[in-house]
From TrEMBL:
The keyword Iron-sulfur applies. Residues 38-67 form the 4Fe-4S ferredoxin-type domain. This is 4Fe-4S binding protein. It comes from the Bacteria.
């Protein structure tokens, strides 16, 4: 099974993250920070590995990986 993983070095940390908004399983957690930056994480228990978020991530920071490798 695959899950989504965010590369923190590539993520632009936008509060308007279209990838997070695209997740119908509500696997993304967006916590507002300062200066229009947010902390974005993915709940691997909710993530189904469908890949929709990958298509919506403009910077290309989200990749799908095998769940065994995610641990």
């Amino acid at each position: 099974m695959r899950v989504a993983r965010i590369d923190e070095k590539i993520c632009d940390k936008s509060p308007f993250c279209p990838a997070a908004a695209s997740c119908r399983f509500k696997a993304f957690r967006v916590i507002l920070g300062t200066s229009f930056r947010v902390n974005i994480s993915i709940d691997e228990e909710k993530c189904t590995g469908c890949g929709v978020c990958v298509r919506y991530c403009g910077p290309g920071a989200i990749k799908l990986i095998e769940k065994e490798k995610a641990s």
